[in-house]
Amino acid sequence: MSIEEIQEQIITEFSYFDDWLDRYNHLIEMGKSVPLINEKYKTKNYLIGGCQSRVWLHAAMKDGLIIFSAESDAVITKGIVNLLIRVFSGQTPDTIIDADISFIDKIGLKEHLSPTRSNGLMSMIKQMKLYALAFKTKSANQ
Amino acid sequence: MTFDINKIRSDFPILQRKIYDKPLIYLDNAATTQKPQIVIDRITDYYTYENANIHRGVHYLSQIDTTAFENAREHIARFINAPKKEEVIFTKGTTESINLVAASFGRKILNKGDEVLVTAMEHHSNLVPWQMLCYEKEARLKVIPFNDKGEIDLSTYQMMLGGKTKIVALPHISNALGTINPVKEMIRMAHEKDIPVLIDGAQALSHLIVDIDDLDCDFYCFSGHKAYGPMGVGVLYGKTDHLNFMDPYQSGGEMVEYVSLYETSFNEIPLKFEAGTPNVEAVLGMDAALHYLEETGLDAIAAHEKDLLAYGTKKLQKIKGVHIYGTASEKTAILSFLIDDIHPFDAGTIIDKFGIAIRTGHHCAQPVMNKFGIPGTIRASFAMYNTREEIDKLAEAILQVKKMFA
Question: Counting one residue from A and one from B, how many pairs have CB atoms under 8 Å apart?
């Protein structure tokens, strides 16, 4: 599925919930199924800065596609990072770099978009795109 | 004087606001307080009718502004019972006041091997400037510990005051735990050894009567915005002798007496430390805020907040899994807590949805969190306009959090 299609899928999924409570409950559920980062990567090097809760993010390249895994000590943050992983994981570096992430606003989690919001959603997206850029540069140099 | 909570609430226009369709419950007062209408009006009036630069104009507006500005200084001096109005210096806020003392006083008296004493409950703004100064001067920063209740042990403090201690910097009230420190006694103990003391009063000014003359501190710092006034203004109180001994912090206009191309003589205090055009609107706004505090009565406010603290503590303690950090016997209306092992960020996100503004995280006091071995807390901090009903709503929100993250 393309990044666009996955975003549409998430938007549809969240559209079944009318109120914030159900949306957050769903997000909490999502947090439980995040592809967990290997314990050995839960180090400072994989920590994303600017988050009130700690988020570790790891990326690996497999057959030209990037596979993300993550972990956080806050459940809501885990839910959010899992949504991002659903969107970005298994995509090529180029599509990740060019992706326009619009679903957050449309699923009623707009408040997490503010650049100062301390859960660091913006930092997570930036970090994922940086990984994509790094893998792209690396493969171009090989 | 009667304390009319409904009247007080009606004085703060923002309290009429709805957040996510719910009435705003503002419990982040330790970060900043809301502003009463008279403060907002003062600022609007200033720009509508009075705006001009001060201290240097012969024209009418400049003259009345200068008078208003200097009257504000006099009022603030009276409010904190400072011996002289020239000892009141306007700054950007508590942080700048502390940085000013570290740079202009600390740098002048500190030598290699000397010691600076701070507490383990400092806000970063009363810690980092001293860390940097000690690093620069190869001096030692020594940290006064506190116990599990959040109280400083005075006998430990006594032992730490040594021959090499050149300055002590203390918070009047801990922003993360709410502890009211026995600063008067701590100042006396330091003075017995001729050690000057700086008090970070950011959390104190709007909650208790600050009496500089009685405290006898060498420096006292606070911000306008935590005491119902505007942002971007604060005060450094300093004893005349210290202020005269200190070099200017910043240079430019206003702080000079005579300037030739190659030489400058400096102005007297307080202007020596007020380079550039000051934040006139904010000084006048802070002046109005202090008038409001006086009219309402600090004793009445303190009594009301004490009731909120007692009620809130009891209410939260009744909820299974809530753990309160900071249980000092002398405490201001701050409740720092965690719910089971739920991350403060998770809890804060849900509590926000109830229209309740609380703070989550380390509250710029990471060493405090490290001591308790926690990532941060949820902090509800109260002001004069808060009510028991709002605490009930907070308790409901906490129960919802427990339900969602159980």
Answer: 42
Question: Chain B partners of A21 at a C-beta cutoff of 8 Å?
Answer: 353, 400, 404
CA distance B279 to chain A (A): 26
Percent of chain B past pLDDT 90, that is, above it, reads 89
Q: Extract the tokens encoding A52.
A: 């009130």
- Domains annotated for chain A, with CATH where assigned, are 3-141 (3.90.1010.10)
Contact between A25 and B361 using a beta-carbon 8 Å cutoff: no
Set of chain B residues whose Cβ sits within 8 Å of the Cβ of A80: none
Mean pLDDT of chain B: 95
Angstroms from B234 CA to nearest CA on chain A: 25
**CA dist B122 → B94, B140, B204, B290, B404 (Å):** 13, 16, 14, 26, 34
Chain B nearest CA to A139, separation (Å)? 38
Lowest mean pLDDT among B25-34, B114-123, B366-375: B366-375
Q: Please, what CATH class does the domain formed by B41-294 belong to?
A: alpha beta
**Of B146, B237, B255, whose CA–CA distance to B198 is shortest?**
B237
Considering only the beta carbons, identify the residue of B346, B353, B376 that sits closest to A75.
Answer: B346
Q: Using CA atoms, how far apart are residues B43 and B38, in angstroms rounded to an integer?
A: 9
**Interhelix angle B298-317/B280-296, nearest 10 degrees:** 80
**What residues have CB less than 8 Å from B330, skipping those under 6 apart?**
B179, B180, B181, B182
Q: Please report the pLDDT score of residue A51 as a whole number.
A: 65
User: B5-31+297-405: CATH homologous superfamily?
Assistant: Aspartate Aminotransferase, domain 1 (3.90.1150.10)
| Cα–Cα dist B383/B226, whole Å | 10
pLDDT tens-digit readout, A101-115: 888 888 877 666 555
Count other C-beta atoms under 10 Å from residue B82's C-beta: 23
Query: Is A135 one of the catalytic residues?
Result: no
What percent of chain B has a predicted confidence (pLDDT) above 70? 100
User: DSSP E strands: which ranges in B114-157?
Assistant: 115-119, 140-144
Interval B133-148: pLDDT, tens: 999 999 999 999 999 9
- State mean pLDDT over B185-195: 98
Q: For chain B, first and last CA: distance in Å?
A: 47
Structure tokens at B179: 């502890």
Put simply, whether A1 touches B (Cβ < 8 Å) is no
